[in-house]
Design brief:
The chain has about 170 residues and is an alpha+beta fold. It folds into two domains: about 80 residues, no CATH class; about 70 residues, no CATH class. Helix content is about 35%, strand content about 20%. The chain contains four helices and five strands; from the N terminus they run E-E-E-E-E-H-H-H-H. Strands 1, 2, 3, 4 and 5 form a five-stranded antiparallel β-sheet that branches.
């Protein structure tokens, strides 16, 4: 299965701090672990999960073995990084943050009497992961849990189009 993985700029797992063998002229080496979602295993995300896991560097990852599908991630016993998604660069990250802030302001404008205090400032765009969350939470305040998930799907669609992902 092909999926995606965000890492630090130097190839470390955002939560595990595992040093991934990054691709160099071909896929990186396979790594493996037992599967215990949120504790052990090779964690990755589908395209629809990207907004939940944003980080500085994005890779396409190949997963092997049985894949456990969770609501916002997938976990397998083996994986290897296939290629870095170069389109997830500083320009794309800035555009993402600005898009999320604009969307949050658009949502607040639907109910300013209720959500006026939620309006983000432009500097939130610099913290792109937070900007996506803020827009989704505003959507949730307007329309409940389904609206939160719809907003995250909207964000996923933006990322898939912007980064030219399959």
């Amino acid at each position: 299965m092909r999926a995606y993985k965000f890492l630090t700029a130097d190839g470390l797992g955002l939560f595990s701090r595992f040093a991934w063998p990054v691709p160099s002229g071909g896929p990186g080496a396979w790594v493996g672990s037992e599967v215990d979602p949120c504790r052990a295993g090779i964690h990755a995300c589908r395209a629809r999960d990207l907004p939940f896991w944003l980080g500085p560097t994005l890779y396409e990852i190949e997963l092997d073995g049985p894949v456990t599908e969770e609501s916002t991630k997938v976990v397998a016993s083996r994986g290897r990084l296939v290629r870095r998604i170069d389109a997830w660069d500083a320009e794309a990250q800035d555009a993402w943050g600005r898009m999320c802030v604009a969307r949050a302001l658009e949502l607040v404008a639907e109910a300013p009497e209720r959500l006026g205090g939620w309006a983000p400032t432009a500097d939130l765009a610099l913290e792109s992961a937070k900007a996506g969350y803020v827009a989704a939470r505003i959507a949730e305040e307007l329309g409940g849990g389904a609206a939160y998930l719809d907003e995250r799907r909207r964000q996923s669609d933006w990322l898939v189009e912007r980064l030219a992902l399959d």
